[in-house]
Amino acid sequence: MPLPRTRGTALRQRLAELRGPEVPAKALDARALAALAANPGCKRRAILDGAGVNKTALASALGAPSAFGQSQFALTRGNAFEAKVKADGGAELLRLVHERLDSGAEPPAEAQVPDLTAIGPEGRTARTALALREATAGAWTLLDHPMLALDVAGSPAFLEPDAVVVHPDGSWTVVEIKSFPMLDGSADPSKVGAAARQAAVYVLALEEVAARMEPAPKVRHRVLLVCPKDFSNIPTASAVDIRKQRAVTARQLTRLTRIQDIADALPEGTCFAPDLPAAELTAAVESVPATYAPECLSACELAFHCRGRSRADGAVTSLGRSVRAELGGLTTVEDVLAAARGEMGDPDDPAVAALRRAAQLRAEALGTRPEDLGTRQEDLGVPAEAQALGVRACR
Q: Of 16, 18, 123, 148, which has the highest C-beta tally within 10 A?
């Protein structure tokens, strides 16, 4: 008599069915896990990533191919800059760590750089854990491209940070090396935020390694972001506190491990295999609720598909999260325009009052009536989405 399936085994089988019986799972990396934290309310991304669906192939099959990803030029430039930062045994990198994060420690005149080569990701993960365990107290240790494992939905995701530094006091720091510049000591906030979310994933994985050691080393929640200085190729660095990103990512990973609930709500026979007929595949994808926002364009391969559907439905989320928050209970552009024309909505609602005030100002400027809002878009060449943004001017 066969043994009953455990919940974990049943979930893995269910996710394999969603992915397609002959389709290999796409391993999650730190970028994908960090992107989950950028849009934690999207069930569609959660189930697709949890099932290991190749979203790039899926987007192409849906007729909305993704432009998401790094260019070859950016990858080449990034690799060259990283090699410069880690030259001479990581002397410059360790100097920056000492200067920005641990100036009270002894300067890193000499550092240990253990060999982390091994066969396969499992072997490299074990070798990294051994190197962290063997790091000598009182000395600096640099782990170049260590391999870490993080449990995601019952399966290990293998992650490879740029570097991990062990301080003389035994604490660990994650180092992220990026090729975007720091101009006058600061970088693009959106790019720094993405790097912080990615570093938070590595910190969570390091914490799992530390938890298996006695005594458990401290994993620092201030990571080092290394970038080119101004328009040169000279490395500079900044300490980034990732406690907020770590907390958000941890909550999202906990939610991802409970994707059984999302899977159970899907219609029987749902499958995301890219070789399915377009109509069947579209219906499968649309059976999972999505939470589209313009920020998805830089973080998700399905962003163009979801944007098209969001615009077709007239959802205000296509205007951005900040606009969505301003509009309260008005969830579609049609409702927003109707409220602005005075056809619906409570006049005491701040969002409705602001919309009507915006419609009045627009009418005064164009010499029209407020109730004409949304009826002369073709003449004006102004889409309804852009008109709806008038509410923000009246806040």
A: 148
Q: Which residue has 């994707």 as its token pair?
A: 259
Residue with tokens 């982390």: 116
The pLDDT tens digits of the residues spanning 188-200 come to 998 999 899 999 9
Q: List own/partner pairs for 204-212 with CB under 8 A and 24 or more apart.
A: 204/150, 204/246, 204/249, 204/250, 204/253, 205/148, 205/149, 205/150, 205/159, 206/148, 206/164, 206/172, 206/174, 208/148, 208/149, 208/150, 208/151, 209/128, 209/129, 209/132, 209/148, 210/172, 212/129
- Please calculate the CA angle 112-113-115 and round it to the nearest 5 degrees: 130
Give the pLDDT band (50/70/90) at residue 78: confident
Side-chain half-sphere exposure of 40, counting CA atoms within 13 A = 13
- 217 burial via Cβ count (<10 Å: 0-12, 13-18, 19+): buried
β-bridge partners, 140 = 111
The C-alpha R_g of the chain, in whole angstroms, comes to 25
Q: pTM of this prediction?
A: 0.73
Q: What is the per-residue burial (b if ≥16 Cβ within 10 Å, else e) of 5-40?
A: eeeeeebbebbebbbbeebebbebebbbbbbbbbbe
Distance of alpha carbon 55 from alpha carbon 274, whole angstroms: 9
Which pair of tokens denotes residue 70? Answer: 């790094």
Do residues 199 and 176 touch, judged by C-beta distance below 8 A?
yes
89 φ/ψ angles, rounded to the nearest 5 degrees: 70, 25
Q: How far apart are CA 74 and CA 72, in angstroms?
A: 5
Residue pair 266/18 in contact by the 8 Å Cβ criterion: yes
